[in-house]
Structure formats: structure tokens, C-alpha cells
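TL;DR need C-alpha cells for one chain.
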Amino acid sequence: MSARDDETPFDAYREDVERPLSKLFREYAPGRLGWFSAGMVANFLARMASLVPPLLLGVAIDAVFVGDGAFELPLVPDAWLPTGEMAQFRFTVVVIVGSFLVVALFTWIYGVTANLFAHGVMHAVRVDCFEKMQRLDMAFFDEKQTGEVMAVLNNDTQNLEMFLDNAVMNSARLLVMVGGIAAVLFYLNWQLAVVTLFAVPAMVLFTIWFMRVVEPRYVRQRSAVGRLNTRLENAISGVGLTKATSSEGHETERVRDSSRNLFDRTMDVLKLSYLYRPGMELLAGLAFATTFLVGGLWLATDTAPGPLTGSLSVGDFVVFLFLTQRIVDPLAEVSNIVDQYENAKASSERVFGLMNIPVHVDDPADPADLGPVEGRVTYENVSFSYADTAGRRAVEGDETAFEETVIEAVSFEANPGETVAFVGPTGAGKSTILKLLLRLYDTHEGTVRIDGHDVRDVSLADLRSAVGYVSQDTFLFDGTIADNIRYGHFDADDAAVRDAAEAAQAHEFIGELSDGYDTRVGERGVKLSGGQRQRIALARAVLADPEILILDEATSAVDTKTELQIQHSIDRLTEDRTTLAIAHRLSTVKDADTILVLEAGEIVERGTHEELLAADGRYATLWAAQAGDRETAVETLVDREDSQ
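>> reply
TL;DR here they are.
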């Protein structure tokens, strides 16, 4: 796999994201700091309460059971403490039970508030990512990076939620526990505390090394997740073609390659994790063993070992053993925290990388008022190339950043109520020309106008509400037929939906379905035929009642009889509106006011049907071929090639 193939649409922009997790908090924590603060306080109180039982146990052992110490607690006045042994014993039991109740209560509060904060951020990030995704240029989606976007919306936001819910709070818990335990140990016996905590600096250094080494591996792992999602999404979308061509083995192999790549990247991470986690547990275990060894010798010989001085009570030794064991778990948890941190860092870079992808087709800063649309469409010397903006940088003003020109110096005008038809071979640029009117792309050179307004000067909402678009690649959402006809005009009533369906010759077949207009069409409309889907799409355009109508081979998926029926409806629909139509079957556009013949992105002929036939050029050749005079068409083509 080459470096270019390995690159995702987010990589170039991800590299520019500085301190992504800090940015996550700056942009999404405000407004949710109440939950976050409550969780931090509850976490602190729960951890502090959990230190009370072992400390009180040590005091009780020395004062009540051994009888070799005073019943004293730090920060608690002696006057508050009982004096008799049985009273001290009962006090110890009650306080220990109360401590566990406090731990349970504040742990519950922490769990609720931490999840409200974490899931709230995740919800906001997911919605913002989806909103940004919808604003991205069509060039981005031409690269078929649906799987990458899905990885950001699902996997990456989930990683952020786990980090905010677990890693952040566990980090606070770790600091509180280590700090609190260290304070108690130093209070009881500072010399043995130094022995117990000797492993902490080594753990810190080990953690710093691990974070530096594992970070790039997490980045590669997240990219591999996106590539696998893309492969799976494409395979599922194209399952019909796969089955029709018996290519299941080929698709399985491609998924296997992507899955293996993810497996390898994941193992790169896990290999380090398998080294780091046992290493942290080993250091924590050594701290416990050293404490037991030194403290045990101290008690057994009643002499401070080595350079240590003073005495050690049985109760203090028990507290050290309890708390040293308590410190093992949070220190060992550092490995999980680091894992979640690095994973979240890589994911947040991808999230903000998506956010940072520039949108070239957007509303102007001060949009002009399109006003009541008459329907005059003008193309003035329009040229277009597919800019390489689908996730990779296109250098402004650098001609090498653009691919081969698709549209070259196209000029024409459609007056209100006129029909302009576009014909020509596949790949001539017909669909691209009309997508420029909707600003699905922006022109490279030249201007597209509606009623004299440059389409780049008006808001996208105003522009697209004035233009209806029926594509040859009809898309239906998983929902009812009525929902799909109503899409874009969601407040339309049932009568309007039915009228639109009748106008598009769709009402009859809808009535024959078991649930009529409430029939669910399935994902992408798979439960309907191609012709049925096109008639629903046409009904959607009829319901919108736009001033300008674009028909991109709107009858390409229907039989001849249905085409005639739909064409009759189209003729009525286009009577009082400007229509730009692309047709493969020339018979459907022979009555157009103007017919433009395109080849290689250029207009090579223009005129009415009769004028173009009289000119005996390319249009006449196409008409002869479709009319059945194939022999004449072939002779004409041969003569033209000989003359050239």
C-alpha cells in the first residue's frame, strides 16, 4: 500500500490540530461544567472517605487491642473521641460502616454526573460532526469516504466518551488516592513512607516513555478503523453487483486485507500495552513487597532496619499494608488511563480534522436577495474542473491542483418558461453543467446566473428552493412512500402528496401496494423498481413546485409505455417553468426550445430539433441512430472521420 493510498481525507488537517483534548474541553465543556465539577467533588469525597477505614483500623489496633497507643485521629479534636476501650471499639465500627456508606453515596453521585457530562459532550460532538459533514463540498463525497465519516461519528466519538467518563475521572481518583495515601503514610511514619513510594518516580518515567512511543501507533490504528469502515460500507452498498458478478470472494479478500491491516495496527498498540501494564503492576507490587519486608523486619527485630530510625507500631504497619495494597490498584490503572488518553487524543484529532476541512461552496457573507424568481438562467463562459478538495489540500491558485477540465467555455441562456435540453455521449459533462446551477460545485471560471444574480452571491437555501432536481441516480430514504415524496417539504398534507404522485404517474402503482402511501421502501428504496423510484422522485419535484426544473435523464429507468405517460406529465409540469433537461432518448427532448449538443465538455452544436437535423451534424447522427437508421448513422460517422 502506497503512502497516498494509506492517506485518509482527514490526515492533512489532523496534523494541524494542536492540543486536541484541551481544545475538546475548551469548546464543549462550557455549559456542562456543573456536572463535571459535581463529579470531581463527589469523586474526591468518595476517595477520601475510603481512606478512613484503614487509618481508623490502625488506631484501633494500637489503642484497643494491643493497648500500646493513644486513640487519636488526624484533624479530629481529642474531645470528640471516646475514652473507654469498648466505646472506642463501637466508635470504630460505626465510623467504618459510615465511611463505606459515604463511599457508596458519592460513588453513585460521581457515576451519574460523570456520565451526564461525558455523554453530553459526545452527543454535541457527534451532532456537530454530522452538521459539518453535511456542509462539506460534493468533492469530498466524490471520494467515497462514507466509512471515514462513519468512523468519526461512531468510533471516535465513543472513544471520547470513554475518555471523559473513565480516564478523566480515574485520573482524578488516582491523584486523590496517591496524594491522600501518601499524606497518611507520611503522617504515620515518613521513613517507611519513603520506602513505600520509591516506585512512583519510576512509574512516572515509564509512563512518559510509553506515551511517546504509543501515540503514533494509536493514530495509525484509528486510520485503519476508518479504512475498514469505508470498505465495509462500499461492500454492503454494492452487494447487488457483487452477487450478480459472483464476486463475493473478491470482496471478502478486500475486507480481509482491510481487517488484517486493522489487526496489525491494533497489535502494534497492544504489544506495547502488554509491556506497559505488567511493568506498572510489577513496580506497584515491588512497592508492596518492599513495604512488607522493611516493616516486617522492623516489627520482628524491634529495631529500625538500615538507616531508618525510631519505632513502628503494629497498627501503623497494618495501615501501611492496607494502604500500600490500595495504592497498587490506582497505580496499575495508569496503563488503562494512558490507553484511553492516547486513543482519545487520536480520535479528537480526527474529529477536529474533519471540522477543519474547508468548505468552499458556502453561503456568502452578505447574501443577495434572490427575490421572486422568474426563471432566467444564464451561463457565461463557464469552465469547471474537479478540484482535488476531497480531504486533501488544493493549493489556491495552483493550476496543478486541478484535474482535467470537465466543462470548457460553456455559454447559453434559458428564458423563463423555456426548455433547454442537453444531449451528447456519456462523460460529455451534461450532469456536471446542471450541478453548477445548484452550486453542488462552483465554477472554475465564468459565471452562472439566475435572473441576473450570480448563484455564488445568494444563499444556498434560496437558490436550491428555487430549483427542483430529478437525478438519474434516484435516492430514497428508508421510510414510507409518502415520506419520500414529502422530503424537503415536510409540512405538505396528504392531498398534496397524492396530487404530486398522480402528476408523476405514480399514484396507480402506489395504490396497488399493500400499504399504499404508507408502504416502506427499504434502504435506498430497494423494495421498489427503478422506474417506481424515478416516479417518486419526480413526484417529489412536482410537490416542490420550483420555478426552475432540472431533469437529469428522469425517465432513464422506465419502459417505453411508462416513459410516454411520464413525459406527458413532464410536459404539463414544464409549461410555465424554466426546464433544463438531460436526455439519453432524444425523442423526449425534440420539442425543447433549444437543444445543446456536448462533447468533451464543450457545446459543439445548438438549435432546435429541426435546425439540428437540417445541419446534418452530430445531433443528426445521434437521431438517425436512435430512430433506427443505423446504417446511415454509421456511414455518416465514417465519412466524418475520413474528412478529419
